[in-house]
């Protein structure tokens, strides 16, 4: 029976991840990686480097140029810091302690990895939600914008975003420690990991963002029609509507494409009759983390101020 269990365990490890091997029933990175493993980790390392460099450019630009010291850019700075830490901490930890390896070896480092992953990813989502609130007041209530969104309000939003994210990350650690005391799966831990966590981290912010951006889009269209009636400039209005639609579609589309598959998978995982293959879950996890790489392009590179700041920084470094 023991030999059969060992064979099944070894086969499970081989099937789950090409970069791991068995060493006295422990699950560790292989000393002789395959070509697939090398290509995989080179690609993931490249994602990490791009994530770090892109968000570092955003942080330097906002910190260096006084023109960017505004409430909106403070929120983008907080987002860039969260995404930078994803590239520096979560990407390397996820490469060293993958989802499939932690499935067999739930040690302290795996719990730390999960905590950082959930905390920083949640913080990134919360900051995106705060940016949508900022854009709502800027577009829908421009006369009240400076009153509603000032530095004190922005600091409060940032503190709440990081605070909620840290509490969720700590909650996952506590739930993981309780698992060791349970013979089976604890109901409260499953509820925390598969229902409460995803709801607070993803579904609730997504509902807020969808409602806000829908409102922004409707208001922008109404303003465009008003301009059309006043100025009779159909070409300019049509261009304005296309640009507004494209920006909102890009923001929501990239975010939802990256995060929705992973959270849907995690939410319905306990209710599936047949288990979802771990490589599928791990691939969806990396797709979600890649949003931290794309955020600088979406929220920074589309703005003229940032493009000019990046050019100045890069020219200064080259000279």
From TrEMBL:
> Where is this protein localized, as stated in its record?
Cell membrane
Pinpoint the G-protein coupled receptors family 1 profile domain residues.
Answer: 54-299
The record's InterPro entries line, in alphabetical order, gives: GPCR_Rhodpsn, GPCR_Rhodpsn_7TM, TAAR
UniProt cross-references to Pfam families, sorted A to Z: 7tm_1
Mostly located where? Answer: membrane
What membrane topology does the UniProt entry give?
Multi-pass membrane protein
Q: Is DNA damage a UniProt keyword of this protein?
A: no
Keywords of this entry? Cell membrane, G-protein coupled receptor, Membrane, Receptor, Transducer, Transmembrane, Transmembrane helix
Q: Which domain of life is it from?
A: Eukaryota
Question: GO cellular-component terms in the record?
Answer: plasma membrane
List, in alphabetical order, the Gene Ontology terms for molecular function in this entry: trace-amine receptor activity
* Record carries keyword Aminoacyl-tRNA synthetase: no
Q: Which family does it belong to?
A: Belongs to the G-protein coupled receptor 1 family.
Q: What is this protein called?
A: G-protein coupled receptors family 1 profile domain-containing protein
Organism, scientific name:
Oryzias latipes (Japanese rice fish)
């Amino acid at each position: 029976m023991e030999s059969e269990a060992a064979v099944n365990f070894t086969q499970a490890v081989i099937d789950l991840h090409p970069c791991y091997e068995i060493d006295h029933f422990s699950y560790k990175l292989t000393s002789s990686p395959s070509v697939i493993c090398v290509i995989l980790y080179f690609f993931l390392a490249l994602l990490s480097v791009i994530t770090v460099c892109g968000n570092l450019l955003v942080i330097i630009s906002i910190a260096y140029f006084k023109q960017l010291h505004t409430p909106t850019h403070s929120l983008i700075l907080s987002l860039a810091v969260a995404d930078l830490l994803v590239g520096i901490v979560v990407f390397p930890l996820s490469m060293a302690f993958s989802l499939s390896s932690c499935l067999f070896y739930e040690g302290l480092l795996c719990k730390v990895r999960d905590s950082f992953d959930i905390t920083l990813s949640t913080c990134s989502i919360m900051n995106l939600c705060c940016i949508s609130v900022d854009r709502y007041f800027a577009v829908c209530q421009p006369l009240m914008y400076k009153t509603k969104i000032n530095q004190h309000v922005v600091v409060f939003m940032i503190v709440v975003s990081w605070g909620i994210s840290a509490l969720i990350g700590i909650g996952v650690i506590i739930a993981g420690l309780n698992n060791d005391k349970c013979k089976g799966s604890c109901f409260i831990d499953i509820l925390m990991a598969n229902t409460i966590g995803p709801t607070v981290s993803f579904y609730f912010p997504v509902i807020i963002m969808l409602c806000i951006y829908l409102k922004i889009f409707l208001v922008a269209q109404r303003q465009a029609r008003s301009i059309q009636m006043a100025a009779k400039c159909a070409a300019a209005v049509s261009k304005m509507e296309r640009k507004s639609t494209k920006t909102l579609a890009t923001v929501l589309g990239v975010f939802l494409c990256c995060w929705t598959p992973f959270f849907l998978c995690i939410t319905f995982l306990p209710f599936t009759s047949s288990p979802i293959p771990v490589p599928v879950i791990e691939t969806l996890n990396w797709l979600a983390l890649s949003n931290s790489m794309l955020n600088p392009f979406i929220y920074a590179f589309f703005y003229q101020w940032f493009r000019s700041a990046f050019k100045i920084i890069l020219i200064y470094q080259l000279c």
